[in-house]
Amino acid sequence: MRINKYIAKSGYTSRRKADDLIKASKVKVNGIVINEPGYEVTDDDILEIDGKRLYLEKNFYKKLYKPVGYVTSNYDPHNKKDLNSLVDIKERFFAAGRLDKDSEGLLIITNDGNFTNGIIHPRNELEKTYIVTVSRKLNKSQVREFEKGLDIGRGEVTSNSKIKLLDSKTNKYEVKIHQGYNRQIRRMFDYFSSEVIRLKRISIGAIKLDDMKEYEIRDFSEKEMEFVRIIKG
Question: CA geometry: angle at 220 spanning 214 and 221, to 5°?
């Protein structure tokens, strides 16, 4: 494994910052200063930065039911309801696929940056499913327009999506998208002057919320781990 990748996977810092540390002669392998970011490290090597030995993190994959009112940042100075108040994990971690403060449902919690990049990268067109209750139903013409794509401002245009009415009395829809613009679904309904009252994500690719309750966190199943391997290639 390349030394800069090893440093990043240990959780010490990012690969880019690891390159800077290597060039600044801060990194030693088996007591010898290494200045080449492409240097190959083996499992038997001892790697140190400023005298501190680094160890590779074991990757973990969990799913969380995020309640309304929490942000998906690890730390937010303006909001005490962040991920650290939801997840009791001592290691470095982050959310793969964000949900805004006013939304609820499925979040993926992991320390695997490659998997996270695979989740959010546009090339994978990973489908995400939401249950959405709105203030006003869309007519047939608006549904077709919704699915074809909308200019929701800020230079952002949605690609094809899927929408299905689940309950005409409560204006409840199932919506499937594969992009991740900020507050995208809210802005899509707002395009038609229909306000989102409740938004709940129930799946990201093959990862399902299933019967989870608010605040609940679970490890990925064996079947869900297959999805991890597919995303990572």
Answer: 115
Crossing angle for the helix pair 113-120 and 222-232, to the nearest 10 degrees: 80
> Can you read off the two tokens belonging to residue 16?
């880019």
How far apart are the C-alpha atoms of 218 and 212, rounded to whole Å? 9
Residue 172 pLDDT > 80: yes
- Token digits for 110? 């992991």
> Could you read off the pLDDT of 62-107 as tens digits, one per residue?
999 999 999 998 766 777 788 988 998 887 888 988 899 999 999 9
Segment 131-165, tens digit of pLDDT? 999 999 999 999 999 999 999 999 999 999 999 99
Annotated catalytic, 20? no
Among 123, 90, 92, 120, smallest CA distance to 107 is for: 120
Report the pLDDT averaged over residues 27-44. 93
Q: Are strands 94-96 and 104-110 parallel, antiparallel or unpaired?
A: antiparallel
Sign of CA dihedral 41, 45, 51, 53: positive
Q: Which residue has 């962040």 as its token pair?
A: 82
Question: Active-site residue among 100, 112, 190, 211?
Answer: 100
CB atoms inside a 10 Å sphere around CB 183: 16
Q: Which residues pair with 156 in a beta bridge?
A: none
pTM metric for this prediction: 0.80
Identify the H or E element spanning 19. Answer: helix 15-23
The type of residue at 135 is S
